[in-house]
Amino acid sequence: MDIHSEKIIILDFGSQTTQLIARRIREQKVYSEIHPYTLPLEKIKEMKPKGIVLSGGPASVYDDDAPLSDPALFDLGIPVLGICYGAQLMTHQLGGKVERAVKREFGKSDLELVYTGGLFAGMDTESRYQVWMSHGDRIETAPKGFVASAISEHSPMAAIRHEEKHFVGVQFHPEVAHTLIGNDVLRNFIFGICGCEPSWTMHSFIESTVVAIQEKVGSDKVICALSGGVDSAVTAALVHRAIGEQLTCIYVNNGLMRTGETKSLMKFFQEKTHLKVIDIDAEEYFLGELHSIVDPEEKRKLIGYGFIKIFEEEAKKLGDVNYLAQGTLYPDVIESVSFRGTAPIKSHHNVGGLPDIMKLDLIEPLRELFKDEVRELGLELGLPEEAIYRQPFPGPGLGIRIMGEVTKERLHILRQADVIVLEEMKKSEYYRKVWQSFAVLLPIQTVGVMGDERTYEHVVALRSVDSVDAMTADWSRLPYDLLGRISNRIINEVRGVNRVVFDISSKPPSTIEWE
């Protein structure tokens, strides 16, 4: 079966948890993807989804500039699930009434069921179920043909359903962990209402992707951008499975790598894989390009341009190379492309940083995967755990962990601090417990006292986050003694640093990397 023959599409109205909806659906082994709420009706028809989800969002349906999808989507005969704003939009567009609630509902709430079919199959009307609400409006009058399926203290229609058509809506968020019946609700929609089959697995993904790469490439040669990170390693392994010796991997030392990184990576590729790897030392080129550059977007794009320049030069040497494979992931695409007419969060070096004049066609086999899916894919491909469970490291390297201008002196300081962070995280066994942990060099200096002498030196920030797919993240609650050891070592062992701070911001509103 084609792994994309059954899919559920999510129309995004601006919710911070839209990506969680996609993840929860994929966890049921059904493919899902996110699109802007402005997705044309003809595109929806072409995609032939088994179901449509209307996400939540911060707007009110009665606002003059409220985001509205094409109401004709309710004429397609496709099941629709509205979540929070999505449920209110369904109500509004089908003739019901949505009004500002007398009392808003934010946070945990008890749900009482009045119907135990559809979304609530397998549940009972005697129990109260904890759900997570986040809305200031509520459904006052259901559209014609709709009835309430559940109520809460302040929502007489906390869930609604059409009595004949496959239209359902909930005022709560089934995608968040605080809704204890969330997975059950989504499963009932996916399998009970949409009639999907669980065909989205990494094994099936490999089979279909290998065939797609072979058909696209034919007898041509492919180069792969290999950084040593999980994404590029899995990309290389997948493309190599498809075309074997037609693939040449190119590792570019951009001068922004961590201490000993290049040497250890080359040793790994030579000893643990069958990949053909070319090692390019481009430190002087990249540091020259970054001279006096302080804007983070400009840094990312310059680094992206530099990579492409080098890849195309190497492709010419190899001859008959028409394709570049790279490890772009779904979160990279989401963050680099605006869905709602606003500015993108940031340009990823392998998405927003690519020049339009690039002559090589792209192969991005991981473009629709989240990070944990990539790790599962890597294990399925037979890559060793040491390659799969490395913490993510950004393609632009330490260049975006140095706030302000990138210089050899500042790189030297950050590299020393970075070594200490990784050593202590691994010794404490927190390295595998957290998503990512690293040091950031700030563009400020502060007064300190060392050996009874006044100092005026750099500040290093520690960043450690917990996450599943990097779309959302929370700061890690590391033990005080671990933070103390890291701070003490950095201040004592790294010349030029006299202060260490710990970043306790989550994503959103912050990003994981500082630039």
TrEMBL record:
Residues 200-390 form the GMPS ATP-PPase domain. Its EC number is 6.3.5.2. The active site is at C84, H173, E175. It catalyses: XMP + L-glutamine + ATP + H2O = GMP + L-glutamate + AMP + diphosphate + 2 H(+). SUPFAM superfamilies: Adenine nucleotide alpha hydrolases-like (SSF52402), Class I glutamine amidotransferase-like (SSF52317), GMP synthetase C-terminal dimerisation domain (SSF54810). ATP binds at S227, G228, G229, V230, D231, S232, A233. Coiled coil: none annotated. GO terms for cellular component: cytosol. The keyword ATP-binding applies. Pathway: Purine metabolism; GMP biosynthesis; GMP from XMP (L-Gln route): step 1/1. It comes from the Bacteria. Keywords: ATP-binding, Glutamine amidotransferase, GMP biosynthesis, Ligase, Nucleotide-binding, Purine biosynthesis. It is an enzyme of class 6 (ligase). The keyword ATP-binding applies. One of its GO terms (molecular function) is GMP synthase activity. Homodimer. NCBIfam families: guaA_Cterm, guaA_Nterm, PRK00074.1. Catalyzes the synthesis of GMP from XMP. HAMAP family: GMP_synthase. This is GMP synthase [glutamine-hydrolyzing].
